[in-house]
Amino acid sequence: MITVVKNGRLNPDVRLWTGIAAISVGLLTFAEFLVQALLVGARPALDDDRALTEFMTRTANQTLFTILIDTFLMAALIVFISGFRQLITHTRPDLQWVANIMYGAGLLFIAVTLVGDAMEGGTALDTMGLDPDASSLRALTVGHTLMFGSIGCTLNALVAASAAYLTIASEALPKWTGYIAYAVAGLNLLSVPTMFGGTAPDSFFAAGGAATAMLATFPWLVWVVCVGFVAIRDRRRLEHLSPELREQVGAEEEADAGAGAR
Fold first, then answer.
1. Whole-angstrom distance, CA of residue 254 vs CA of residue 148
2. pTM of the predicted structure, to 2 decimals
3. CA angle 133-136-140, nearest 5°?
4. Peptide bond into 12 cis (omega under 30)
5. Could you tell me the residue ranges of all domains in the chain?
6. Per-residue exposure over 205-228, b if at least 16 CB sit within 10 Å of its own CB, e if not
7. How far is Cα 137 from Cα 73, in angstroms, rounded to an integer?
8. For residue 176, what are the CA distances in angstroms to 113, 155, 180, 253?
9. How far, CA to CA in Å, does 9 sit from each of 1, 3, 160, 205, 228?
10. Please, which residues have CB within 8 angstroms of residue 254's CB and are 6 or more apart in sequence?
């Protein structure tokens, strides 16, 4: 996966940037988890208006900081799915239509997540310099819970399943990463019914609750990071080029040197 430019350097290194983006997704997700767990904490029941209002007011800044992290996370995810698609289509151009399904589902997942972030941000902004309305806070919370939960799981399942097929069919990446992706797709589908689990904060199977994090989000993150490390490990350098390409690079460098001398 190399483009040789006139100065003899390899640009762009798609595997490197795909790997960097994947690892960035992992680090940003971990940072978001720490902020959510240590600074935000568990929200109260949605039917407790007073406790809900106090919680949203107390954690408004932390919530906005979490959304800021998630925005950069989604930007890194765009780079990752773009690089992944390029890895596949360069190796097997005939699989581009499947790669487009993966890419489109990934972009839609990102869009849904950002809309959910905006709704969650609305709960924070509604308490800053305003008289918070518990019914509005409840409606926004329930809405983004579905987006981060079952809706996101459905789209992630499509991303993972198509990526699994592409990986195994193209062999652009090790097949074991494809098998992991198939497992991730299945676990995400298992998480979809949690939308019927209610909104109780202490329920494992609540919508957008712990079951979604453990069965869907964490396995998907493991797959992304695995692909990232593999992509960086297997990237090709200038010395790995075929003799014909190395000769081409040398000829281009000599031509540039001659032009500079003139």
1. 55
2. 0.85
3. 140
4. yes
5. 14-252
6. bbbbbebbbebbbebbbebbbbbb
7. 25
8. 28, 22, 6, 40
9. 13, 8, 33, 52, 22
10. none
pLDDT 10s digits, 140-151: 999 999 999 999
How far CA 177 is from CA of 27, 29, 189, in Å, comes to: 20, 20, 19
pLDDT the model gives residue 11: 65
One-letter amino acid for residue 204 of the chain: F
- Cβ–Cβ under 8 Å, residues 207 and 150: yes
Q: Considering the chain, what is the average pLDDT of its residues?
A: 87
Between 258 and 51, residue with greater pLDDT: 51
CB half-sphere exposure, 145, CA atoms < 13 A:
24
User: Using 50, 70 and 90 to split pLDDT, how confident is the model at 56?
Assistant: very high
* pLDDT confidence bin for 98, thresholds 50/70/90: very high
Cβ proximity of 216 and 10 under 8 Å: no
List the structure tokens of 65.
């900081």
Q: Burial level of 239, CB count in 10 A (0-12/13-18/19+)? A: exposed
- DSSP 3-state of 163: helix
Say if residues 111 and 75 touch (Cβ distance below 8 Å): no
